[in-house]
Amino acid sequence: MAPALTKAQQKELREIAQSIVANGKGILAADESTGTIGKRLGSIEVENTEDNRRAYRQLLFSLPKEAKIGDSLGGCILFEETLYQNAADGTPFVKLLQDHGIVPGIKVDKGVVVLPGTNNENCNTRSGWIG
Length: 131
Hints:
Order of helices and strands: HEHHEHHEEE
Low-confidence stretches: none
Helix content: 25-40%
Mean pLDDT: 88
Radius of gyration: 17 Å
Shape: flat
Distance between the termini: 26 Å
Strand content: 15-25%
Number of helices: 5
């Protein structure tokens, strides 16, 4: 049976993983679901609309190059909605991150549910695909 990944794919995956966790770098979890970000926006009395969520995320992702956020962040986990959003000038959020040397990723679970047959233990449900 052939390996799941070719040698070239294994090398590429290893290089990506190493760039994400390079010395001094971390991962930004910007994967708030619509409900979670709605609570954050509601706490400052901002309506939970797609445009307001986009504007909030744009604040995070559109820092100038001089901010050098790529020196501290190796990766950024995105919510599915965010993966397809653009800044006000039309630049995809994914490109803004990549321009800073940050590897974008996507959240692959659909939230927490009670695990059947347990004493109210929780587990994550998966989305069934990885972007």
